[in-house]
Design brief:
The protein is about 40% helix and about 20% strand. By secondary structure, it is α/β, with parallel strands linked by helices. The strands form 4 sheets. The protein has a 7-stranded parallel beta sheet with strand order 3-2-1-4-5-6-11, sandwiched between helices. It has a 3-stranded mixed beta sheet with strand order 12-9-14. It has 2 domains: about 1-170 and about 225-250, 3-Layer(aba) Sandwich (Rossmann fold); about 190-220 and about 255-320, UDP-galactose 4-epimerase, domain 1, CATH 3.90.25.10. Helix 1 (about 10-20) crosses helix 7 (about 225-240), helix 4 runs parallel beside helix 5 (about 140-155) and helix 6 (about 190-200) runs parallel beside helix 8. Helix 5 links the parallel strand 5 (about 110-115) and strand 6 (about 165-170). The longest helix is centred in the first third of the chain and has 22 residues, at about 85-105. The protein is globular and about 55 Å long.
Length: about 325
């Protein structure tokens, strides 16, 4: 298939480009480079520097390449930033998805795989979280994605030749096995990279945002899925997706690790000292999130291969050790 990947120069999008090419598909990369890295796009992949909100240009691109599927990753993803700058998130994430849907409709593109998030569930009343768990976000980031999901559902009702899949991620970690691409955010807020940067001496300390949550050790619990497993799921879903389909899947490993457990796991893997301090809770963080990912296994045979958190930590450590300053762009 010809697959347009939005947000292709980002952490997950760049891994998706490689997974698609490895599976025999032809990926086309699109990114506005506001937070992505041109160096993360593999050589030989067609690259277009474009914002997804530029609807007319996006439509032209879909027509030019006769795109069979859009993998829509382009989004802002910081929970705390979304609380501080909510309108920026609705403009970029929700309006961005609206623009993509308009371009897809005009060009007649038959499939779309959407990058959603466990943040749409808010503070769920059940654990593990199923796809049918009620969605009630507690931060603008989660709402920006939930509004996008609703637009997809509404559009599909009147477009019988359009099929879509919503993939709700839990926490993504790790890097490519060959260490040529990895995680490079500015600022970096994801827990594992932050700890690894502290272990490398790139930051003075790490802060634990709250130790008074209603969890066994008082710190937040999250489900960590390896990035290579995650993008493998995207390819699997895309290949099964047919016009007229409406699919929704959780992507996780089905168990959670607390912040303190992640800190201890990093210490075991890297065997380097780093300073840890306790700070206040971060706005918009629910205490516990982990997935029931049995639906995608039942329907498509996918399940995560990397279920030991040490695998994700070790691959990330190799990336950060060999690229301490990130990409050279």
């Amino acid at each position: 298939m010809q697959v347009l990947v939005t947000g292709a120069a980002g952490y997950i999008g760049s891994h998706a480009l490689r997974a698609l090419a490895s599976a025999g598909h032809l990926p086309i990369a699109l990114d506005n480079l506001s937070r992505g890295h041109r160096a993360a796009v593999p050589a030989g992949v067609a690259f277009h520097q474009l914002d997804v909100r530029e609807t007319d240009q996006l439509e032209a691109l879909l027509r030019e390449h006769r795109v069979d599927c859009v993998m829509h990753f382009a989004a802002l993803t910081y929970v705390g930033e979304s609380v501080a700058e909510p309108l920026m998130y609705y403009d970029n994430n929700t309006r961005g998805t609206l623009s993509v849907l308009r371009a897809v409709e005009r060009a007649g593109t038959p499939r779309l795989v959407f990058s959603s998030t466990a943040a749409t569930y808010g503070e769920p009343s059940e654990m593990p979280i199923r796809e049918t768990t009620p969605q009630s976000p507690i931060n603008p980031y989660g709402w920006s994605k939930l509004f996008s999901e609703q637009m997809l559902r509404d559009h599909a009702k009147r477009s019988p030749h359009f099929g879509y899949a919503v993939l709700r991620y839990f926490n993504v970690a790790g890097s490519a096995a060959d260490v040529t691409i990895g995680e490079d955010h500015d600022p970096e807020t994801h827990l594992i990279p932050v700890i690894l940067q502290a272990a490398l001496g790139k930051r003075e300390k790490i802060s634990v945002f709250g130790e008074d949550y209603p969890t066994p050790d008082g710190t937040c619990i999250r489900d960590y899925v390896h990035v290579e497993d995650l993008v493998d799921a995207h390819v699997r879903v895309m290949e099964a997706l047919q016009p007229g389909d409406e699919r929704v899947y959780n992507l996780g490993i089905g168990k959670g690790h607390s912040v303190k457990e992640i800190i201890d796991a990093v210490r075991r893997v890297v065997e380097r000292p780093f300073k840890v301090e306790t700070g206040p809770r971060r706005a918009g963080d629910p205490p516990s999130l982990y997935a029931d990912a049995s639906k995608i296994e039942r329907e498509l045979g996918w399940r995560a291969k990397h279920t030991d958190i040490a695998d994700a930590i070790l691959s990330a450590w190799r990336w950060f050790s060999s690229h301490p300053d990130g990409y050279d762009d």
